[in-house]
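[audit] Reproducing an earlier prediction to check determinism. Same input, same settings, fresh worker. If the tokens differ from the archived copy the diff job will pick it up downstream; this log only records the rerun itself.
[audit] input (146 residues):
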Amino acid sequence: MMMAGEQLMIFDGTFQGLLCAVFDIYEYRFGEVNIQQEGMAQGSVFSAPHLVATRPEHANRVWEGLAKKIPRPAMQQVYHTWLSEQPEAAGAIVRYMRYAFSGVAHMEKDYGHEAVRYITDSAKKVHREKHRMEAFVRFQRSRDNL
């Protein structure tokens, strides 16, 4: 749901596209944004959407910049949240990255912040699901019926 004054951003649904959306937020100096995937976007009558162009050089610049702000495990949590494929994950990742780029020290441990809490919880869910799948695969029947 769009709030008044939010800029609607539409990206291609890839992780690189999401990183490029973060790049565009700073390049175009957008305030509040509503980020949605192409084909799933619900526009607003009052504002034109910003279509995010996916450029690998912009995505790499954002990812490398994030690596300077947060530790590697926190970066993995961001990517695992993306892998969760939850509809609200893209927005939470964008809010998390904006918080990281704001310069707050050790922001990845600020569980009072809504985006940090979402990223942490989603990454844990993905990790648990990965562990369950590995356990399931490990106990499949072998060729000699063991």
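[audit] rerun output stored. Observation attached for the diff report: The mean pLDDT is 91.
[audit] end
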